[in-house]
Write a structure and sequence with these properties.
Layout (H helix, E strand, L loop, with lengths): L1 E6 L8 E6 L3 E3 L6 E3 L8 H4 L8 H11 L5 E2 L14 H11 L9 H4 L2 H12 L11 H12 L5 E7 L4 H8 L3 E6 L10 H13 L3 E8 L11 H14 L2 E5 L16 H8 L12 H11 L13 E2 L12 E2 L3 H9 L4 H13 L1 E2 L15
Parallel strand pairs: 5-12, 6-7, 6-8, 8-9
Antiparallel strand pairs: 1-2, 3-4, 10-11
Helix pairs in contact: 2-13, 3-5, 6-7, 9-10, 12-13
Length: 371
Amino acid sequence: MLVSCIPEPGIGTGKSRTIPVHGRSQVDKIGKSKVLASDHETLNENVKKPQYVVRGELYLRASELQKEGKKIIFTNVGNPHALGQKPLTFPRQVVALCQAPFLLDDPNVGLAFLADAIARAKHYLSLTSELIYLTDGASKGVMQILNTIIRGQSDGILVPIPQYTLYSAAISLYGGSLVPYYLEETANWGLDVNNLRQSVADARSRGITVRAMVIINPGNPTSQCLSEANLQEILKFCYREKLVLMVNEVYQHNIYQDAQPFLSARKVLLDMVLPIASISLSPNVLGQIFMGLMVSPPNPGDISYQKNVVCNFTKGAMYSFPQIRLPPKAIEVAKMAGKVPDVFYCLKLLEATGISTVPGSGFGQKEGFST
């Protein structure tokens, strides 16, 4: 059934009402207007391809159980306020002043607003409209940029894997090609520029023109924070390859440790264009220790030897991305049920505990990593 708006006679085009339409086409006996209907088979294929696993089978099943009275803990959607995080005061104060700039002229404005919020609001209000592009949410901004960049199937977008599924869905919707570059779980979801080069070379060998690169910092769903050195490598790489760099920094305020603080790619870029001269006077001791641990990991029998459940430290964003190695028998049962193993595990976890998660396969994780 298609619900269509059809002008009623004698009222003009200013008024309309919805009329259910069945079949391929139908003429409304009142308005005498032809309305075309569509079904699933005739829809644009690019509209049917995208999948959003964050609100997929697990989420739908969780919603059903919630309606049945089961208490559900939804961990699938990255909404910090829904999980009890207090709204950020500073951004709200700045936005309030920008929306009501006359408050800045009030002599008592400092009693209600923080001084740095007032200064930031004045800065934003001094900018011209040519420097600002507003969208109704980050996702719409991402989709508009991708829609501008992608011309057809031969245009590729570099996307980190595991990835926030908005990108694969939008790229598919606009008829482009997703070019994956894999983050290394064993290196705390680190990014290796050599992997980027290989991904671009592989794409070009298939006739794909790579036009843009996506980075998510802090990682979603992997939670890592990119280092300054990593960001510099990425910026240089995009400059050499003439790529548009799309930077997702939505969760920059959700940082849970001090060892690896959040750094904005824009700030790193601005710092790079200035003349810099420095000499390293001391070795990177922590880096040397980490490298030593990587080449000489724990041995069987050691307390830190590989377990069935491991997880890199959650540095930021809204997700932890653990790796759960399922036993062969569980994988066999999942296949008999016609389910991907990690989806089967997450469904069983949901029904047993009421915890709604997202299977790692939905984020494009490498096969064999049941995260």
